[in-house]
Design brief:
2 copies of one chain form a homodimer. In chain A, 37% of the residues lie in helices and 13% in strands. In chain A, strand 12 and strand 13 form a beta hairpin. Chains A, B: Keywords: Hydrolase, Pyridine nucleotide biosynthesis, Pyridoxal phosphate.
Chain lengths: 409, 409
């Protein structure tokens, strides 16, 4: 079968037409929720079936070697590393973002003994605040939670660690990785970045910024599937000095010696804990291959084209209905989703869902629309804005069925 | 199609012939490693395909509600609860055994402030020792690691928690859950049981013993697949007093309120942390259904028949070759695997593997054979012993290929 090569307006091969074809997009669905749960790459159907039936069912225990299950955290981590500006050996995929955050924040404060403060963004995704609070409690530290704009003025010689999300989960505002990292270092503190809304949507460069630690999520722009394993990054210069608290056997230098004393593995691998979830991790690893051959500059350009087009259309068509763009207008500050605010946002999102336009909603009135560069298109952007416009004209948001409250995930 | 109902020698329906048919058993393989990685239940092939393609690929984010992804930890936990003598609401499936152990040991020591000692089994599976050491370090406690037989004499008013594995991973010795739990309570301490080699192979009764906490593994006798999510149990009387350190958003009372302050969920659900791995957890949950309709007394009887037959045959056929049974001969003390010791054990296990008899090896000279009541048979036991006998007669263990060292998992 001939594969038709899509071309862009300039005649160059359009890498994103090719990547879009590799996702399952249900009939009639316009999906703007890749910042919450990425679409399913078609290849994972067969891949998971192979892992389950051939590797587990037929290969059994031998697949730890023969199917290389043992090195899945490192192999998936190396694929993520390219997207976030890390060395391949600095990233492992494992556990959940929350668990990984606990490991790296504890490690950071242990590298800065005597300092008694953690500074973090008061508007961070709540799980990050909960984990930071628990670390502070365990180490007798004080948490200073302030808006991101006030973090730098709160840095001083008592600060052990700064915990900050690179792309804000509500507004999609990008916080300057270089500036915050350097300011933290000037104060003698270490910085931990949460890249959950970054990797796969917005390139970043942890190494160039000299970032110390990072964590992130596998199921958003990385398309690893619901609750996919997360990842963590530890700068090579720190890894062998780190003592992480979840010292399970997979982080041991020689796990199969079954030694009673813990001797951590070299490098970031010491941040592994228990036996890793092979099926989910293998699916994530396979999904990450969809970024192969996608230049990061092109990924960013595509993302900005989509969000820019959306903002322009909102201004033109939806501002008269009272919609406010709650995301930065400056391209350099804008991640890969755009949030709108509207008093009837909840009902509008439900009405959109009934039309198979899928975005999500965050309290109290944020309508979030993710634009995943691998699969969203300009045509979908126009259709989305037209649909919201039409819902407002018809007052569809006011239907009782669309006002009934339920949780969005 | 008529389904032929297998019957036992007594003419009663043989539940285990029916359960065995539900597993994929590769051609020619005799599998005695269900205590390390359970066989694949045939049903999970189609089940995983459905979760991936229909729930994720087509249902997308809505599957958190519509496919009930949200309650997977509780639903899988409730199925495990029956196997370990817990209330359905006292168990959740999540994270890894090591991560869960960290949560419950921290919770236990927080419930016993002022006490400065954790007592544990020096011969426990190493990851348990590593985690206990980290908890002790965080709380400034001392770990007393002694052989299980000396735990009770080390209990006193300074002991906050006892951490003990119910079925020893090497010898399969069962430690008396009632006696250790009651002795711990008399000293005012709380007890944490590791049930990794228990659940699905050996019934236990956490509630009847008044056990405080437990953790366990999903990929051994529960057949959840490689690196399947683990589980944890918290006695109902403690759960709402517990403060667990991995306070992620899924343990929050109202995760989708995105509140900046952590308010733990009621009961054992507060022990959830990050977003759970849906694919792996759903596979585990489906695999657990294979225990439906299997009475726990029958499960235990079947397990004992298999291990007893094996020990008898070893005594008769293999003792002359120098094999020593390293597992208890008393039925009441014996779990669902049997370990043999032999100086050439490593080479023997490799020679067995070449004949498609799969067990595993633990340093320095333990040959472990798991007898999973859901699928192993008396015929396989006889074939296993005959194969070892034959390998010894032919000195097959001495072949260079079988002496080459590699890790067993």
């Amino acid at each position: 079968m001939m594969v038709q090569q899509a071309v862009s307006a300039t005649g160059a091969p359009d890498v994103f037409a090719s990547t879009r074809e590799r996702f399952l997009i249900p009939d009639g669905v316009r999906y703007f929720d890749g910042n919450s749960l990425g679409l399913m790459p078609r290849v994972v159907q067969l891949h998971a079936s192979n892992v389950i039936t051939h590797e587990w069912g037929l290969g059994l225990i031998h697949s730890w070697h023969e199917a290389e299950w043992r090195t899945l955290p490192q192999r998936a981590g190396a694929k993520i590393a390219r997207l976030i500006g890390a060395k391949p050996t600095e990233v492992v995929a494992c556990d959940s973002t929350s668990v990984n955050l606990f490991k790296v924040v504890v490690s950071a404060v242990r590298l800065r003994p005597g300092r008694k403060t953690i500074v973090t963004d008061a508007d961070a995704f709540p799980t990050d605040l909960y984990i930071v609070d628990q670390v502070a409690k365990l180490f007798g530290l004080t948490v200073v939670a302030v808006p991101a704009a006030r973090i730098i003025e709160n840095l001083n010689a008592d600060v052990a660690a700064v915990v900050l999300t690179h792309v804000d989960y509500r507004s999609a505002e990008i916080y300057d990785m270089h500036a915050f990292t350097q300011a933290s270092h000037r104060a003698g503190a270490l910085i931990v970045w949460d890249l959950s809304h970054t990797a796969g949507g917005v390139p970043c460069d942890l190494n160039a910024c000299e970032a110390d630690f990072a964590v992130g999520c596998g199921y958003k722009y990385l398309n690893g599937g619901p609750g996919a394993p997360a990842y963590l990054y530890v700068a090579e210069r720190h890894a062998n000095d780190c003592e992480q608290p979840l010292a399970g056997w997979f982080g041991h230098a020689r796990p199969f010696d079954f030694a009673p004393d813990y001797r951590p593995a070299e490098g970031t691998s010491r941040f592994l804990c228990g036996t890793h979830p092979v099926i989910g991790l293998s699916v994530l690893s396979r999904a990450l291959d969809l970024f192969d051959g996608v230049p990061l500059e092109a990924l960013r350009e595509r993302s900005l084209q989509l969000t820019q087009r959306f903002i322009e259309r909102v201004d033109a068509q939806l501002a008269p209905h009272g919609f406010v763009v709650a995301s930065p207008r400056a391209a350099s500050l804008r991640g890969s989703h755009v949030s709108l605010r509207h008093p009837e946002g909840y009902g509008v999102m439900q009405a959109l869902a009934a039309r198979k336009f899928i975005g999500d909603f965050r309290m109290p009135d944020y309508m979030r629309f993710g634009f995943a560069p691998l699969y969203n298109t300009q045509e979908e952007v126009a259709e989305l804005v037209d649909a919201i416009d039409d819902i407002m004209r018809r007052r569809e948001w006011d239907k009782p069925a669309f006002q009934q409250r339920r949780d969005f995930t």
